[in-house]
């Protein structure tokens, strides 16, 4: 009984795939063409990996910048303020 309730309808899957497709830059650039769900999931994983690399790179660059600053300087305080939630 619970397996029946946990199943996702094909309509729901199609709706979620469409939402995911609208979030990925590569699929938005291609236009309205419909990609397979498997291909879309692969592109999503690649995009997330790319975002992770970008975050790592920015973190490294920020660390390098902060290492060259006087920790009590106005510039260092400005950077710290930007990083606060």
From TrEMBL:
* Annotated keywords: Growth regulation, Transcription, Transcription regulation
- The organism's superkingdom is given as Eukaryota
Protein family membership: Belongs to the bHLH protein family.
**Domain BHLH intervals:** 1-51
Q: Which Pfam families match?
A: bHLH_ILI
Q: Name one GO biological process term.
A: regulation of DNA-templated transcription
Official protein name in the record: BHLH domain-containing protein
Q: Does the keyword Aminoacyl-tRNA synthetase apply?
A: no
Instruction: Supply the source organism for this entry.
Output: Ensete ventricosum (Abyssinian banana)
Question: Which GO terms label this protein's molecular function in UniProt?
Answer: protein dimerization activity
